[in-house]
């Protein structure tokens, strides 16, 4: 499931409550850390499914004050450009208003994914230079442990 499963990440997921499981994503709530851990479990998430899942997450965050959102994308091979547009321009801004200040992402170890992501972010920056879509607004980490060690 996780790209690197260690004692800390195993404990966090066991401590966490799996509150949303779809064929594309598993989402855990770690109450002691006020953290949502969102794991992509397939190599691609269709755009419509992504939006529905993340709108459900928005409702959950509305009812459960959250400090940190960890998105483990290590299983992904590709993504839809409109998915990133929705994530950064719509969803992320709404959850920031609800109090999330820390966003941490685990990227796949895949050069073509990273190159495609950079290209898409460059396009999005031109569309909306007022929206922070990278560092420092999002911290990129190599595994789940890094999310809780900083």
- State the shape: globular
Helix content: 40-55%
**Which stretches are poorly predicted, pLDDT < 50 over at least 5 residues?**
1-8
The H/E string reads HEEEHEHEHEH
CATH architecture: 2-Layer Sandwich
Count of discrete domains: 1
Strand content range:
15-25%
* CATH C-level category: Alpha Beta
What do the pLDDT scores average to?
89
* Terminal residue distance: 23 Å
How is this structure best described in words?
The chain is an alpha/beta fold. The chain has one domain: Transcription Regulator spoIIAA. 44% of the residues lie in helices and 20% in strands. It contains five helices and six strands; from the N terminus they run H-E-E-E-H-E-H-E-H-E-H. Strands 1-2-3-4-5-6 form a six-stranded mixed β-sheet. Strand 5, helix 4 and strand 6 form a beta-alpha-beta unit. The radius of gyration is 14 Å and the shape is globular. The two termini are 23 Å apart. The N terminus is likely disordered.
Task: Write the SSE topology.
Layout: H1 7-15, E1 17-21, E2 25-30, E3 35-40, H2 47-63, E4 68-72, H3 81-97, E5 102-106, H4 111-127, E6 139-141, H5 144-149
Parallel strand pairs: 3-4, 4-5, 5-6
Antiparallel strand pairs: 1-2, 2-3
Helix pairs in contact: 2-3
């Amino acid at each position: 499931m996780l790209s690197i499963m260690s004692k800390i990440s195993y404990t966090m997921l066991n401590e966490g409550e799996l509150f949303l499981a779809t064929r594309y994503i598993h989402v855990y709530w770690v109450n002691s850390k006020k953290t949502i851990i969102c794991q992509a479990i397939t190599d691609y998430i269709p755009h419509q499914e992504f939006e529905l899942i993340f709108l459900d997450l928005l409702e959950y965050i509305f009812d459960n004050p959250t400090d940190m959102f960890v998105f483990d994308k290590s299983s992904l091979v590709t993504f839809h450009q409109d998915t990133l547009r929705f994530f950064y321009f719509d969803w992320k801004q709404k959850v920031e208003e609800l109090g999330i200040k820390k966003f941490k992402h685990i990227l796949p170890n895949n050069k073509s994914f990273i190159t495609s992501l950079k290209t898409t972010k460059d396009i999005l920056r031109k569309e909306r230079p007022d929206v922070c879509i990278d560092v420092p607004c999002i911290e990129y980490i190599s595994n789940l442990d890094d999310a809780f060690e900083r």
